């Protein structure tokens, strides 16, 4: 006879390693705890309708060979069960009907909030553990603890950018690569730094205020001119997609009348996040840069490329395959602990040891979201990244020799060069 019944729910976007968590949770719960394991298909999508038709019993045979495969055998969805009280009650009704007393959610901050809400609303009848995942690496786990999926996404992204860099050199063009990363620049910087991209631009570097389209384009233009001054009419710039959010709807609205509609529309998902994929940011930047280069009579081929969907369902690298097994095992270990009777938690590992992080300490009391872990631009990691980028710096607008050389490469007089690009130094 089963000693308990555990439900597994995957929310948000895919990330390499989801199947590893599903596998580890299922095997530990079935073989060691004697629980039944229910795999809920497509996140909360069907639960909010009170449906039990999309729930399957998982067996060891279902999960024993999936930990090295990308994707999710349970699929995933972004449905938010907390927006409507009726939806939340429908979810609780399904869990009560199925006698679920343990829940493991896998996802980002939105799914963490959903899991915490289920825990609170269930009044102690369901113990909840959340396994954090995102290729963005922007959840506030302890220092140096990555979110699963990030290492795999970075490795796949580095391979893509290295290929583009060779293409740029061969065909003499510039690539503008937009990398996923809604709220922080970890993935873009990790890819750009490891792949030796010409430069990488992330939202966190704008310390004096949010970026504008003009400031962003001038940083890119300065890098192009600096490369051109050395006889190199090619390069790869990696841009974090979070720059869209940093510029903001008002900033994007600064485009000439009617222009914004050429690149998509401003939409938000059920959790209130800007739908980055609805704005063709890469093409927007390419068109803006083409206009600026034409005004300077600089003939250059520009190509935009977005990478993100290529990364999310990649087979996990050994780091993530091992890491997700540890996380899944630890989720069940937390659920059988005395602590799980007192609070629901986000599962983390510090120095190889389980460190459950209570929902109430991780979620903002007002927004009910986790704080974003941003790139520390004061540390040596970012400092090193900047050292190896090709972009204008202070000496380029203060040294007479540099000003003369760069102004010539940019087809402008020296005074104009200094006035224009001094503004984007140390932003």
What keyword list fits this structure?
427 residues, 2 domains, Rossmann fold, elongated, 4-stranded parallel sheet
Order of helices and strands: EHEEHHEHEHEHEHEHHEHHEEEEHHHH
Regions with little confidence, pLDDT below 50 for 5+ residues: none
Major beta-sheet overview: 7 strands, mixed
Oligomer: single chain
The total strand number stands at 13
Distance between the termini: 64 Å
Radius of gyration, taken over Cα atoms and rounded to an integer in Å = 24 Å
* Binned strand content: 5-15%
The CATH class designation of the largest domain is: Alpha Beta
Helix content: 40-55%
- Count of helical stretches: 15
CATH architecture annotation of the largest domain: 3-Layer(aba) Sandwich
C-alpha geometry: elongated
Average pLDDT score: 92
Strand line-up of the largest beta sheet? 3-2-1-4-5-10-13
User: What's the CATH topology name of the largest domain?
Assistant: Rossmann fold
Give me the secondary-structure category: alpha/beta
Q: Give the tally of structural domains.
A: 2
Characterise this structure.
With 427 residues, this protein is an alpha/beta fold. The protein folds into 2 domains: 5-148 and 316-362, Rossmann fold (3-Layer(aba) Sandwich), CATH 3.40.50.450; 154-309 and 392-424, 3-Layer(aba) Sandwich (Rossmann fold). Helices cover 40% and strands 13% of the residues. The chain is built from 15 helices and 13 strands. The chain has helices at residues 18-32, 60-63, 85-97, 109-122, 150-171, 186-194, 213-228, 242-252, 281-295, 309-312, 318-335, 359-362, 380-387, 400-409, 414-421, and strands at 5-10, 36-40, 55-57, 102-107, 127-132, 173-179, 199-201, 235-240, 301-307, 345-346, 349-350, 353-354, 357-358. The strands form 3 sheets. It has a 7-stranded mixed β-sheet with strand order 3-2-1-4-5-10-13, with helices on both faces. A 4-stranded parallel β-sheet has the order 7-8-6-9, with helices on both faces. Helix 1 links the parallel strand 1 and strand 2. The relative contact order is 0.15. The mean pLDDT is 92.
């Amino acid at each position: 006879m089963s000693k308990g019944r555990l439900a597994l729910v995957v929310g948000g976007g895919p990330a390499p390693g989801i199947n590893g968590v599903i596998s580890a949770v299922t095997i530990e719960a079935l073989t060691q705890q004697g629980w039944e394991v229910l795999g809920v298909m497509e996140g909360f999508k069907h639960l909010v309708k009170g449906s039990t038709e999309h729930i399957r019993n998982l067996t060891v045979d279902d999960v024993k060979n999936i930990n090295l495969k990308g994707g999710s055998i349970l699929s995933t969805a972004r449905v938010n069960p907390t927006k409507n009280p009726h939806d939340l009650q429908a979810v609780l009704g399904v869990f009560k009907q199925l006698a679920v007393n343990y829940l493991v959610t896998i996802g980002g901050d939105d799914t963490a909030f959903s899991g915490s809400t289920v825990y609170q609303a269930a009044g102690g009848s369901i113990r909840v553990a959340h396994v954090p995942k995102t290729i963005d690496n922007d959840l506030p786990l302890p220092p140096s603890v990555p979110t699963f999926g990030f290492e795999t996404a970075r490795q796949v992204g580095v391979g893509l950018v290295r290929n583009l860099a060779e293409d740029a050199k061969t065909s003499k063009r510039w690539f503008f690569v937009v990398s996923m990363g809604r709220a922080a620049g970890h993935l873009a910087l990790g890819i750009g730094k490891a792949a030796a991209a010409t430069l990488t631009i992330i939202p966190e570097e704008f310390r004096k205020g949010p970026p504008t389209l003009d400031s962003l384009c001038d940083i890119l233009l300065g890098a192009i001119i600096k490369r051109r001054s050395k006889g190199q009419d090619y390069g790869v710039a990696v841009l974090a997609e979070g720059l869209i959010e940093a510029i903001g709807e008002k900033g994007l609205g600064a485009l000439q009348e009617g222009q914004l509609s050429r690149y998509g529309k401003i939409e938000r998902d059920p959790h209130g996040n800007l739908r980055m994929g609805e704005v063709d940011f890469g093409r927007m930047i390419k068109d803006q840069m083409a206009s600026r280069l034409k005004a300077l009579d600089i003939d250059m081929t520009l190509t935009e490329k977005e990478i993100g969907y290529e990364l999310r369902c990649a087979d996990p690298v050994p780091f993530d395959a091992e890491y997700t097994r540890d996380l899944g095992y630890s989720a069940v270990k937390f659920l059988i602990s005395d602590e799980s009777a007192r609070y629901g938690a986000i599962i983390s590992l510090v120095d190889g040891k389980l460190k459950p992080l209570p929902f109430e300490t991780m979620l903002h009391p007002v927004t009910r979201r986790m704080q974003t872990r941003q790139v520390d631009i004061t540390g040596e990691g970012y400092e090193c990244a900047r050292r190896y980028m090709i972009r204008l710096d202070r000496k380029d607008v203060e040294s007479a020799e540099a000003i003369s050389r760069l102004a010539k490469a940019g087809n402008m007089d020296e005074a104009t060069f200094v006035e224009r690009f001094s503004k984007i130094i140390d932003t």
